[in-house]
Amino acid sequence: MIIIKNGTIIDPVSERLYRADLEIKEGRIDKITVQEETAGLQHEGETEEIAAKERQFLEDVQVIDGTGLLIAPGLADTHVHFRDPGFTYKEDIFTGAKAAKKGGFTEIVLMANTKPPVDNAETLTYVLSRGKETGIHVTSCANVTMGMGGKVLVPMEELAQAGAAGFTDDGIPLLNAELTKEAMMRAKALGKPISFHEEDPQLIQNNGVNAGKAAAFYQIGGSPREAEISLVKRDLELAKQTGADVVIQHISTAEAVELLRQYKKEGTKVHGEATPHHFTLTEDAVITKGTLAKMNPPLREEADRLAIIEGLRDGTIDLIATDHAPHSSEEKEKPITEAPSGIIGLETALSLGIRELVQKGYLTWSQLIQRMSTAPCKLYGIKGGVIQEGAAANLVIFHPEETWKVTSFVSKSCNSPFLGEELPGVIYYTICDGEIVYRRREEDE
To answer: Assuming Cys at both sites, which of 61, 290, 360, 385 could form a disulfide with 57, CB separation 3.0 to 4.6 Å?
Structure first.
C-alpha cells in the first residue's frame, strides 16, 4: 500500500487542480481524500521548503510526502523507437523503458522499423514479451507493409490478433495512394489507429535539414516543406473517405497544422502529433547543434513552431509524442549529410512541455497532461490517462519549478540538442500499477 499525502492532483478529465491524499492498494487508486481546490499553481515566490521523502510508515505501507509536488496520470508516448530487435547498440527495450520511467512515462507504444521489422507475429510477440518484463506498459505497432517496402500490406488481422496496438511504417512514407486507402480501411475495420510519416522523398534532396536557412548554411538542398504538405493533404482526404483513425505524425509545418484543423472541423477522424523538439526549436538549432538537431521531418521556421503551439493550444494537435530515436555517438559524429536523423526525448519531454507550453501560458496543466497522457491513451485503447478511484495507479509525481541540468541520460544514447540546458520539472516518482518504478535519488541532482 502507498499513501501520497498533501499532493496537488492534475485532473485532465475535469480540467482542475486540487490538493488531496491518495491511497493506492493492489495496483489501483483505492481512495482520494480531497483537501481543497486550487485554481492554479504559482511558478515563483514559494517560500515553503519542499520535501518529497519516502519513509516507512508500517511494514506494508509507504508514505510519500507530496507537499509542493504535482501528481498526474502516468505519461503515454505513442511514438517511440527502442531499436529492439536489430539495433540494440543504440537502445534496447530495457534501457528504453528505464529512460521512459525516469521521464514519467508508464505507457509506451513502439514503432515497427526494427530489424527484422514488425511485419510478422513472431517479431511482434518477441517485442511484447520483453515489454512485459520492464515494469511499465510497453506495446508496439505493427508495420503497414511487408518489409516496409510500400508494396504489399501486412496480415493486419493476424497482427491485430497478436496484440498490435496500431499500424505504421514510420520512417518510410507510403507513396501508393490506393494501398494507403486500403490500409486505412482495414485498420478501421480492426478498430486500430494507423499512423503516417509524411515526407515525400521525391521532393527531398537531403533529409533532416530544412530547405531554408539551415540548408543554405550547409550548402545542401535540404528538405522542403512541400514534402510534408503534399502527403498530409493526400492522407487527410483519404481519412475523410475511409473514416479511419489516422494519425499525422510529428507535424513540422504551419500548412500541415492548418490542413488538419480544417479536416477536423469537417468531422474527419484525424489526429495530429507534435514532438517537443518541434514546438521548442527551429532550424537555427541545426546550425548551432549540428547533427544533434537533425531529424525527420526537420526543424523549420519560427512561424512553424508557433503554428504547432497554436495547434496544441486549440486542440487541432491532440498528441504530444517524443519520437524517441536513439543513435550512437559514432553515427551522429558523421557529416551532416551522412549522420542519421533523430534525437532521444523521453527524459526531457515533460520538462520541455512545462517550459515551452505551461510556463509561457499556452497550455494549462490539465491541457498538457491531456496531450501527454489522456488523449494518447484513449486513441490506443490504453487504460490510463486518468486519476480516479478504482483506476489503475499509473502516476508521475514531479516538482513543476525545481530545475535540473541535462548532463547525462539513462538511455544508451545521448543524441539530444538539449544537452547542457537547465530545465524545469524534476520527477520524483513514477508509479505503474501501484509499484514505484522510478524514484529520484540524490545522484540525480
So the answer is: 61
51 and 191 inside one domain: no
Cα dist. 267→118, 271, 339, 342 in Å? 32, 11, 40, 33
Alpha helices (H) in 43-176, listed in sequence order? 93-102, 121-131, 156-161
What is the rounded distance in angstroms from the CA atom of residue 358 to the CA atom of residue 320? Answer: 14
Stated pTM of the model: 0.94
Grid coordinates representing 254 are 504551419
For the beta carbon of residue 5, count every other beta carbon within 10 angstroms.
16
- Do 122 and 47 belong together in one domain? no
What is the domain-level CATH number for residue 156? 3.20.20.140
Summarised one tens digit per residue, pLDDT across range 6-44 is: 999 999 999 999 999 999 999 999 999 998 665 555 444
Q: Write out pLDDT tens, residues 180-218.
A: 999 999 999 999 999 999 999 999 999 999 999 999 999
Whether residue 279 contacts residue 271, with contact meaning beta carbons closer than 8 Å, is answered with: no
| Catalytic sites, residue numbers | 323
Furthest C-alpha separation in the chain: 66
* 384 inside domain: no
Give the range of the structural domain holding residue 406, as residue numbers without chain letter.
Answer: 2-71+389-444
